[in-house]
Amino acid sequence: MLRIAILLAVPACFQGIGPDLPDAGRATDSGPLGKVTTTPASAGAFTTWIDSTSASEWTNLDLATGREGDVTAWDLRFQRFHISTNGGVSGAAGVEIVPVPDLGFADVTSAPTAGWIADAPDGDDPNADPDYAFEQGVGWYDYNPTTHVVTPKPLVWVVRTRAGTAIKLELLAYYDEAGTAGWFTVHWGPL
């Protein structure tokens, strides 16, 4: 019910500020629709739910539309607990990210001038996966080996999209309401 109330309370000023969201791409009381569902949040920001439950297939996110992207029209992609950029070794679109520690979402008002990273070739670690940008440095999550629970770190990330614009985002959840892993909740908005 809260999601519907948010949709009804959103003023017309959201038009032109972010993605064009047809009703078919919005969440309902029963939860997300499809693999990517985006709804307006507050102050020009959006909430996106991403189904990344597959351990073998990627779910692409197009930040220009807030929808699932295709093989070329994507900025970020999600597979189980991996988040990949369409830049570096994973794509040719030049997408880069930078974590912004010690600031809340509302406090990030401009893109940093340094520290940008993209997906890199596999480094010295026990797997053969690329070093995904969101897993470099501090990484996007904490893992509890006792409970096997993944918790997003309270970080704001700035993403330089394939269109060259900057958005800020925070990863709010990795589980859906039933506790199923691989359901990202992402809060994001333009800078």
Report on the architecture of this protein.
With 191 residues, this protein is mainly beta. It is built from one helix and twelve strands. The strands form three sheets. It has a six-stranded antiparallel sheet, with helices on one face. A four-stranded antiparallel sheet has the order 4-3-5-6, with no helix packed on it. A two-stranded antiparallel ribbon has the order 8-9. A hairpin with a 5-residue loop joins strand 10 (156-160) and strand 11 (166-175). It is globular and about 35 Å long. 35% of the residues are buried.
Computed structural class: mainly beta
Q: What is the percentage of strand-forming residues?
A: 25-35%
Task: Tell me how many strands there are.
Answer: 12
> What general form does the structure show?
globular
- The low-confidence parts are 1-18, 20-31
Biggest sheet: strand arrangement? 1-2-12-11-10-7
Instruction: Give me the strand/helix succession.
Output: HEEEEEEEEEEEE
Count of discrete alpha- or pi-helical segments spanning 4 or more residues? 1
User: Helical proportion?
Assistant: under 10%
Radius of gyration: 16 Å
The major sheet is characterized as:
6 strands, antiparallel
What is the CA-CA span between the terminal residues? 29 Å
Could you report the average pLDDT, rounded to the nearest whole number? 86
Give keywords.
6-stranded antiparallel β-sheet, single chain, 191 residues, 4-stranded antiparallel β-sheet, 1 helix, mainly beta
